[in-house]
Amino acid sequence: MSKSLEETTGAASPRAQQSPSYTPSPALPLAFAAFAGALMPVQGLIVGRAGTHMGSVLWAAVVSLGTAFVLLLVTSLFTAKGRQAWARGVTIWKERTIPRYFLLAGVIGACYLMIMAAALDTIGLAIFAVCIVAMRTISSMVIDIKGFSPAGKQPLTRQRALSAALLLVGAIVASSGAGARAENSPMTWVVLVLSAIIGALLSVQQSMNGHAGKAYKSTTTVTAINNLVAVVTLLIIGVILAILHVPAAFAQQPPEWWHFLAGPLGILFVTTGITLVPILGSLLTGIGLVTGQLVGSLLLDYLVAPEHVQVTEVLGVAITVLAIIVASLPTQRFIKRR
């Protein structure tokens, strides 16, 4: 028998209290989770197109991350919890409550956004998403085993091992179509490798943010700090490239108004996930976000360059979604069904 929403989240609505048999349908919030997941490839599309327009993906990423930082900063300063978190940050920095290398979470975020933008015209957003989800999940399992996450050490269960195998199969199947794309872009294989690397690092970033969130007691403040570090990182890279007279260090055109939408989309993705977890629980929220990202990436590839989309990419996305569902199954249920 499946658990009700009240049993999963620990909170019951007034109507549910009046009628014990009433179980609110998760369909609508799950649809919102999928929609939020689909915003990630849209953000990559905007940054990629902004990079083409401006003549520099670097400055397109600065526009996106800078906009997000300003919005998060203003939002956090307008709330008592946010102001307390910023004040708490001074003590955290002085007393080294969390290691200072946790600032690398922002560097990882900057690299992720630039690689996603580069994937648009090379490997495609669908293959990029499969690589990200596969490597992020597999590396998360390693982190759980080592105990780096805030939740401590977690055992490698049978369904997680099965999920890892399915993720590798999905990534291989989806990436098998990269060969045809390589004929149009010599950077295809480079972006593919970078996508796998940054996907593995995202789980490290998530663990760092988890520890930082506990210390600051504010997700908004931690996310703002990440965006600030990301912007500073890109500006330093820009200065180095300018000294070396690399054309990518200079923007040829100013950004258009819709280029600034990439930052708010990223914030909406994060806040939607945080909002829906108490309603759906981590399981359904995670499945909704990941499924939306994968399917949204595939649809955008069809819209941007339908001639490059292959059956292998569709199969790879389907296998990856299945792997995420398997990884999310509670251990007891998995054993009973076996």
TrEMBL record:
UniProt key word Membrane: yes
Transmembrane segments: 27-46, 58-80, 101-120, 126-149, 161-180, 186-204, 225-251, 257-280, 287-305, 311-329
A GO-annotated cellular component: plasma membrane
Region (Disordered) residue spans: 1-22
Alphabetical keyword list: Membrane, Transmembrane, Transmembrane helix
KW Transmembrane (keyword) present: yes
Domain of life of the source: Bacteria
Cited PANTHER family: INNER MEMBRANE PROTEIN YDCZ
This protein's name: EamA-like transporter family protein
Source organism: Neomicrococcus aestuarii
